[in-house]
Amino acid sequence: MALIGPLIAPYGVNEQIPSETRQAPSPDHWFGTDHLGRDVFSRVLFGARDILLLAGLGTFLAVLAGTAIGLLSGYRGGTFDEALMRVFDSLLAIPALLLALLLLGVVGPARNALLIVIVFVYTPIVARVARSVVLSVKSKGFVQAARMRGESETWIIFREILPSAFPTLTVEGALRFSYAIFLIAALGFLGIGVQPPNPNWGLMVAEAREHVFQTPWALWMPALAISVLVIGVNLMADGLRRVLRVPGA
Hints:
mainly alpha
């Protein structure tokens, strides 16, 4: 529904109806209207597609980059592996929101910059997860047999090790997706990243905060949407963990 939201939204994303400002939820405006007369339900639908696309693409790229780095680093080991992991440990010591703020301060608070931020913030932790799987399987018999057959490093990593890492990385990707959704919403609330009048859920909460006593529904609805989506993605990740029988279920 979120992906097709703009197709079913009853009003335009920034359509203002001056005669219907601060309208409570009703059959005409399911989530009410805000202080500018914009339909909150329509803006939530538009914001859903935006946050899902940004978080989904950013997470996908982070998982790709982290998997490639983690598999290569874990398989080769040595000084390269140790140095890279120390760099990643340093990045992981910084809270994700603070690291995102630092990055946006460098690249600028643009919508597309959020993709760079998500990739940079979540690649290190995906890489560590991928590396841990490599370390647990690279000494096993099927990997040793591939080495004895003279298979190339690339063949061993992608044909022997990656299938073993796939379930764990799938679950990790789902978890990072939920974190990315929350991060985008938090940055929007702080006024960084997606800029007005774009319907970022966090930005909608921030704008409605100034009129919370007149239009509380304009704050509750996007806040509820964030909560429901994050909880839903986490439940999906937990379901994947159980289906794929990843340790920790």
